Amino acid sequence: MFKHILLPTDGSETALRAVTRGVELAALLGAQVTVMTALEHFPSGIMGSGYRPSDDAAQTFGLKIAQERLDQAVEVARLAGVKHQQLLVRDKQVYMAIVDTAKSSGVDLIVMGTHGMGLIERLLVGSQTQRVLAHTSIPVLTMH
Fold first, then answer.
1. What is the dihedral of CA 5, 9, 12, 17, to 10 degrees?
2. What is the pTM assigned to this prediction?
3. pLDDT tens digit sequence for 43-96
């Protein structure tokens, strides 16, 4: 059935629930998972998770938060004994990072939350899940 599942995360409760359910599904199916997060490049000060490429990566707040998101998701997979890899995508719109990663990684299912970090971000940038659904032919399982 499904052999490789993509689990995008933004660190929200909804995303972590989706990661957990995606890992559970992978364990049942004997599938592997790729956990990923994305950082868009925003002009300084517009979004808290944005970063400036000229900054030292070790000191960049956005990169630190992104790695924490990945670590959290990887731990779920590790504890379940599911084969996993992690990926941080930079400088792409979040939905395109998810769609492009799904294509390039050969995943056959995307499991993601229906909403992420907050209402204001959804109003400003729209629903990443809706955009992924509109731009991929890969099945997407959404979790609320």
1. 10
2. 0.84
3. 555 455 555 555 555 447 888 889 999 999 999 999 999 999 999 998 899 999
The phi, psi pair for 87, rounded to 5°, reads -150, 135
Give, in degrees to the nearest 5, the angle at Cα 119 between 58 and 23: 60
Domain boundaries of the chain, sorted by first residue? 4-143
Helix H or strand E segment including 43: none
- In sequence order, which residues have a C-beta less than 8 Å from that of residue 105 and are 6 or more positions away? 4, 6, 34, 87
Residue reference for tokens 């000060």: 45
Look up the CATH superfamily of 4-143.
Answer: HUPs (3.40.50.620)
Distance of CA 107 to CAs 51, 62, 89, Å?
A: 28, 26, 16
8 touches 37 (CB < 8 A): yes
Between CA 15 and CA 116 the distance in angstroms is: 7
Beta bridge partners of 36: 8, 87
